[in-house]
Amino acid sequence: MVVQTERDDATWYECENCGLLFDEKSDASEHEQRCDDTEPSYIQ
Ligand SMILES: [Zn+2]
């Protein structure tokens, strides 16, 4: 799941699976779809 978060006066989108931050929601959503299928230990 992608979580919207405010940091440094900017909006970020965080992957709940691995904690990666994205500045584009579309990037976060795309990552999250792949992240769901992979082991948590594998971080791109
Ligand atoms: Zn992820």
Automatic annotation (TrEMBL):
C2H2-type domain sequence ranges: 13-40
InterPro entries: DUF7128, Znf_C2H2_type
Protein name as it appears in the record: C2H2-type domain-containing protein
Annotated source species: Natronobacterium haloterrestre (Halobiforma haloterrestris)
Organism ancestry: Archaea, Methanobacteriati, Methanobacteriota, Stenosarchaea group, Halobacteria
